[in-house]
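User: Okay, second chain of the day. Same drill as before: sequence in, C-alpha cells out.
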Amino acid sequence: MSITANEILDAKGLACPMPIVKTKKAITNLEPGQVMEVQATDKGSTADIKAWADSTGHQYLGTVEEGEVLKHYLRKASDKETKDEIKHKAVIDLQELQDKTESEAPLFILDVREPTEFAFGHIPGAVNIPLGELEDRMDEIDEDKELHIICRTGNRSDLAAQKLTNKGYKNVKNVIPGMSEWNGSIEK
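Assistant: Same drill. C-alpha cells below.
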C-alpha cells in the first residue's frame, strides 16, 4: 500500500500530549482535503489522534505500523466539516481528588493511560482502561459512583470524559492536570 501525504510530521520519541500538540499546530498548514502523516513511537498516540480527529471534524484515515514507528494518516477537514474543539466542562483538580481519595467517599477513578504508563505508577484503586479500549470496556465502569477520569496531562482524560458523558454516564469529571503532577499515594 502506497500512501502519499502532503506533509509528514515527525513526533517520534515524544510522549502524550506532544504528538497531539504538534499535530494541532501542523494541520493548520494544510489545505482542506490534504493528508498529513504523523510519525510517532508513543503507543497511545493511535487512540489519542483518532479521538482528537473525531472531536475536531478532521478525518482519521488509519495507522500503519513500520517496526517501532506508527504512521497515522489524517485528512484535513474543510471549514464546513471542522468543529470547535470541545473541552469537558466538569473538571476536578488534583488536590480535590487527593482529598477525596483520603476520605471514605465512594468514587471511581478511571486511568485511561496505556498499560505501561499505569504499571509505573497509578492512584491506588484506579481502574486502567486505555482510551483506545474505552468504547469496548464501558461495562467495567461503575456508573453509580462519581467518575474521575485521569491520564498523564488531562488531554486523553478529557476525550474519555466526553465519550462517557455522550454515552449517558452521569457525574463524570476530568482530572487536571493529571498524573504528571500527582503528589498523592502511588501504587505500582
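The chain is about 30% helix and 25% strand.

User: Thanks, on to the next one.
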